[in-house]
Design goal:
Number of strands: 10
GO molecular function: 4 iron, 4 sulfur cluster binding; lipoate synthase activity; metal ion binding
GO biological process, one term: protein lipoylation
CATH superfamily of one domain: Aldolase class I
Strand content: 5-15%
Strand order of the largest sheet: 1-2-5-6-7-8-9-10
EC number: 2.8.1.8
Keywords: 4Fe-4S, Cytoplasm, Iron, Iron-sulfur, Metal-binding, S-adenosyl-L-methionine, Transferase
Number of helices: 10
CATH class of one domain: Alpha Beta
Structural class: alpha/beta
Radius of gyration: 19 Å
Order of helices and strands: HEHHEEEHEHEHEHHEHEHE
Shape: globular
Cofactor: [4Fe-4S] cluster
Length: 299
């Protein structure tokens, strides 16, 4: 029997008063959820249990999750299911496009689970969906939020080359914005983003700006995982060094007891400081606050 002093008791922080979830009409919430289920498509709003999904649904918007609902990686912060990905839905791009049409969206965000099992690591999921959306309305603005597209080669040089080729095929479709999240500071990457790399992600953003200088680049980080203010500032500076145009900074909220615990709830005044810090560096758009998420108010 373990000594009581050997049993580690986790301290769970109480949700602070300044984190208030938006309230929305139940009818609007149900309307979008019903459409998603009937269309056999997925959204990161549902799979990731986003705290803003009621607000976004009420506005008739959603961020579509491509490649199924099972991710080939196991990030310790994410609510999306992990494991062996399911076979691709060959009609997914058409179904997403039809949902976009029904919702009458003018700005669409496309993201995906990581599909390291596919030769192109899921790049064609974005390409085919963009093509289908633009068939009925070429004027719709489309933001893509991609995984790191890394891997598949035998050497670093091979992986680097493949990442650039996959990225180029997506950027050739001229999305309004290319988004890829660092998620956290460099020290915490292995713990938080299993299978991902801080340097590879920065490299992807740098390649995107090099390939398509006119396309806005964007990245986001979460706070509350044990990072320091100095580390956050360094991360913001690193994003600026690769000419990232937009940045989102939000509070990490633990999806379940199986996920990483919240080490700190950052205060509104601290978010305000980071907003001013980022703006002074020259980012074109800064979204910073407790409930800010990568695609929140993206349009």
């Amino acid at each position: 029997m373990k000594d009581k002093n050997q049993i580690k008791i986790e301290k769970i922080l109480r949700l602070p008063s300044w984190i208030k979830f938006p309230i929305s009409k139940a009818s609007e919430f149900e309307k979008i959820q019903t459409l998603i289920k009937k269309s056999n498509i997925h959204t990161i709003c549902e799979e990731g249990r986003c705290p803003n999904r009621a607000e976004c649904y009420a506005a008739g918007t959603a961020t579509f999750l491509l490649g199924g609902s099972i991710c080939s990686r196991a990030c310790a912060f994410c609510q999306v299911n992990k494991g062996k990905p399911t076979p691709l839905n060959n009609f997914e791009s058409i179904q997403v496009a039809e949902a976009v049409k029904i919702l009458n969206l003018k700005y669409v965000v496309l993201t995906s689970v990581a599909r390291d099992d596919l030769p192109d690591h899921g790049a064609n999921l974005f390409i085919s969906t963009i093509n289908e959306i633009r068939k009925f309305d070429p004027k719709i603005q489309i933001e893509v939020l991609t995984p790191d597209l890394w891997g598949g080669g035998k050497s670093f040089e091979d992986k680097d080359k493949l990442q650039k080729e996959r990225l180029r095929t997506i950027l050739e479709k001229k999305p309004t914005c290319f988004n890829h999240n660092l998620e956290t500071v460099e020290r915490l990457q292995k713990e938080v983003r299993r299978g991902a790399s801080y340097k590879n992600s920065l490299s992807l953003l740098e390649k995107a700006k090099s390939i398509a200088p006119d396309i806005q680049t964007k990245s986001g980080i979460m706070l509350g995982l044990g990072e320091t203010l100095k580390e956050i500032e360094t991360t913001i500076l690193d994003l600026k060094k690769v000419n990232c145009d937009q940045i989102t900074i939000g509070q990490y909220l633990r999806p379940s007891l199986k996920h990483l615990s919240v080490k700190k709830y950052w205060e509104p005044s601290e978010f305000e400081y980071l907003t001013n810090f980022s703006k002074k560096l020259g980012f074109k758009k800064v979204s910073c606050g407790p409930l800010v998420r990568s695609s929140y108010h993206a349009g």
